Amino acid sequence: MTGQHTSVEPRLGPPAAVRQLAVPVIVIGLLGAAGYLVFPEDLAFLTRLISITLLVLSLDLVVGYCGVATLGHAAIFGVAAYAVGNACIAGLADPLLLLAVGGLSGLVMGLVSGAIVTRFHGLPQLVLSIAIGQLVGALSNKLSSLTGGSDGLSGITPGRIFGVFGFDMFSRTGYLFSLAVLIVVFIVLTRLVASPFGLLCRGIRDNNLRARMIGAAVYPRLIAMYGVSGVVAGIGGALMAINTGVVGLDSVGFERSAEALVMLVLGGAGSLWGALFGAIVFQLFEHVVSAANPYHWLTLVGLLLVAIVLFAPQGLGPAVASRWRRLRRAGARP
Amino acid sequence: MTRPLLELRNVSRAFGGLRVNAEVSFTLGEGERVALIGPNGAGKTTLVNVITGDLAPSEGRVVFDGQDITDLSIPARVKAGLVRTFQITRLFTGLTVAENVALAVMQRRGMTWRFFARATFTPGVREEWRRILELLGIADLAARPVTELAYGQQRLLDLAIGLALNPKVLILDEPAAGVPHDEAPKILEAIDRLPREIAVLMIEHDMDLVFKFARRVLVLANGRLIFEGDAGAVTRDEEVRRAYLGSYADGRRRA
Description:
The complex is a heterodimer. In chain A, 75% of the residues lie in helices and 0% in strands. Chain A has helices at 2-8, 14-38, 43-63, 74-89, 95-117, 122-142, 144-147, 172-193, 196-206, 208-213, 218-244, 254-267, 272-292, 297-311, 316-332. Helix content of chain B is 35%, strand content 25%. Chain B is built from nine helices and ten strands. In chain B, the strands form two sheets. Chain B has a six-stranded mixed beta sheet with strand order 6-7-8-3-9-10, sandwiched between helices. Chains A and B meet through helix 1, helix 9 and helix 10 of A and helix 2 and helix 3 of B.
């Protein structure tokens, strides 16, 4: 079979690199344009959706690519959001610098919680991640001078992007800005997970002992990936703070961590596209259904999840991908 | 004998009061092909785990290539050239065949801290995993996910990962375990094609395989080395017969 061999060696060099760049730009760009057209009155919702999508992508890096079990990932997201809020209130107005603050505080949070969480495996690991989340949540409530406590941190008014594009009350600037950030992050992550480092992380996920038996030091890799994941979550938190101007306790809460995990499983852990689609589908569904039926929408979300687990247990991403491959193969046959 | 590569000096390992290995000493020279046999529960796998660093010995030293490695970590031993395969295949099940071998190649070359480089198809890396897969006769499987492989093919991939680490000593823990009987010769053929300079220590149950493979045989029973010598002489040794081969000879007669 000649087809077998071409799949061993995908097109290399510029075409592959261009594809890595072009596909996310086109797909996410089109999705973004569609969102703009369908929800022109609701850009604030879409902007929030993008922040959470970044959190889900970040979660995918540790859950899907490293096999770490965590239910405390929102702690990273929320701490970064608080850091950005405080930086902004203290006078740092440039949105790009604020993003950097978010990424940096996410990095620190990611490295610290990664160093603790990846020390353990299985259930202890999961419980520890929850504990870190609860600890951060409780601290956020107590340190009200930094977080505003249960009232939330408000008064975050970022300046203009590049000194030109100001944030408007219709979230138009915020939406486009967030979309651009999402595209850039997605492209960087696509390269990262396809790198030797990314491959080793997947190897560690599949078989920790074998990874050590090929001579790899596992723990530093997991911490490093946690750091990267922290940067992504931190950027998500920064966008949330910049766009809404408020950071509440829900940003660090357990519920947000759990919801992000549900979105990831829904879309398919271990695939960036899966994480992306899981986050989009879940949040759109929640948005539309909760508007249509404010009383029973949670029941419907539950039914959606049960249906996915029954009919596409690996998540939406892999299910769609395999359908697509089968269609193409059928189409290729005369 | 050739230059000694792996040397065990009075290695013992106990679990609580149970002594699984007792005062085991032997030497493995460059390019040697040695089989380690023994009845179930003789302590073979424990001994392998002590050699590779999975377990620390309770007493005794392990010397590799002139260096005492008793306190070295698993990755450090692998880097030095002491590599093993597993009795139950341990593969990277979410990756393709090519990626499994490429990962080992890149790890050996110290490339796995690269965050934005190409992985499996990096020039140099690509040639190397392809050469290894061709040597073992599974190059046509390169693009397949590991989960689609037959068990015999998985065993060969396990071996391929080991080879990718450039071993000086390769320890094969029951390489044909679980493989259908008619496929076992294929595994042996592949082992036969390994580069001559690699010293191979094979732990095996299948005596036919042992006699085809090894010139020298070590017999472990109740944690002690009770025989060390020529493959031809092992069946004539009275103590070995009593401990182990009796059941084998009986089995043959019955079969």
